[in-house]
DNA sequence: AATAATAGCGGACAATTGTCCGTTTGTCAA
DNA sequence: TTGACAAACGGACAATTGTCCGCTATTATT
């Protein structure tokens, strides 16, 4: 039988991504519309929507490179700190995540919008929570928390649950509010979060 | 001079709210459009948008009664537990908030959408964080946390900051994901959150 | 090369959100 | 009462999001 695949499909995907990246950096993620991206890239609406059903999906794709870098950083740090106490490793990971959230705030907020609204809430899939970035962060935090608890250094809790809560606490709009309204710097926020979410779990804190 | 106020303005406001409430309960918050509400109520688009710029604002108004009840419950509990340890009072407040979030999930999610997206992010106002409900919850948590810390029962932290983080951790979509994906009941979630966010702050935990 | 078949492109179209402006309507002064 | 004034109503209009379907272009087959 015939199963033809267009050879130019991949090129269009890259054209769309590149156009979106350019427009986002020039005008800001919020103000650029899907229609505008398609128009500028010179492709039909459907051509884009078939790839990215919402702006959030597009952003998730765009952030993928940056996220790969974050992942490499975290993995590197963990390897380098392999012999360090779990607490230290947890703090290192946390710091990286917060820096990343701060740097990629605009894309992350757009992704969050898609998560919160839309029929995602009805889908079984739950795009965001099943995305590779989320799963990686959750998995990494969970295993560190589990190691800390299993080695008896902390109080008792459910590592997977706690990891979800910690990630929720790092929602971009909350961090932005803390920095806009209260003037906290990124370092302030990191320190405060460690004092509030991580250290208290450890017996050795006092 | 003349400063006339239409006497029917208030009636229209109530008509809009009532219509919205009816449509929401009948069809669900997500599927009902602003246009549909205006059409059903028999008022112009602008008449509604002049009062509620987004669906989230409307939901914030609709939830106000329920929130008044929550507030009364919390205030009542705190009065009743006036002599109880701070830890116990914190847990009681937390429990109420989570139950409320669970019961009013659909309205709260709609409110969150408006918060996360939209030009709210550019506004100085930041509607949501300045809303009476948020300020009340944040204030109540902050004062309890401050009391706990000042009385030397807990580790050291910034009460106001921590209160923000705690509320962020209770985001409706996160709680929904925990219950949908992992099957946690409301009581499970309450217990876990207490073990993760509250008890560890206290010296006396162990 | 010519042909058949289909993956998938593109623009028109529908639905929703948000804005603007001509007109109505209630209030106050005479 | 009547007239003037402005608060505020309502629907038309613009912008954005999301869908549908006719048509093109690509590839396997002969």
From TrEMBL, chains A, B:
Sequence ranges assigned to domain HTH tetR-type in this UniProt record: 10-70
InterPro entries on file: Homeodomain-like_sf (IPR009057), HTH-type_TetR-like_transc_reg (IPR050109), HTH_TetR (IPR001647), Tet_transcr_reg_TetR-rel_C_sf (IPR036271)
UniProt keyword Ligase present: no
DNA-binding region coordinates: 33-52
Keywords: DNA-binding
Keyword DNA-binding among UniProt keywords: yes
Protein name: TetR/AcrR family transcriptional regulator
Species: Paenibacillus terricola
């Amino acid at each position: 039988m015939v199963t033809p695949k267009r050879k130019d499909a991949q090129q269009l995907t890259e054209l769309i991504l590149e156009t979106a990246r350019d427009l986002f950096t020039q005008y800001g993620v919020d103000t650029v519309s899907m229609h505008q991206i398609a128009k500028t890239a010179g492709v039909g609406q459907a051509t884009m929507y078939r790839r990215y059903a919402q702006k959030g999906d597009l952003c998730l794709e765009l952030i993928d490179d940056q996220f790969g870098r974050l992942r490499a950083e975290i993995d590197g740090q963990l390897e380098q700190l392999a012999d360090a106490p779990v607490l230290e490793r947890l703090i290192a990971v946390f710091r990286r995540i917060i820096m990343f959230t701060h740097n990629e705030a605009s894309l992350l907020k757009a992704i969050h919008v898609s998560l919160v609204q839309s029929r995602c809430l009805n889908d079984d899939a739950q795009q965001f929570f099943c995305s590779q970035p989320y799963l990686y962060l959750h998995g990494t935090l969970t295993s560190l928390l589990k190691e800390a608890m299993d080695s008896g250094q902390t109080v008792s809790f459910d590592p997977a649950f706690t990891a979800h809560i910690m990630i929720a606490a790092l929602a971009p709009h909350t961090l932005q509010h803390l920095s806009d309204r209260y003037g906290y710097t990124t370092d302030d926020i990191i320190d405060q979060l460690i004092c509030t979410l991580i250290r208290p779990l450890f017996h050795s804190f006092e």
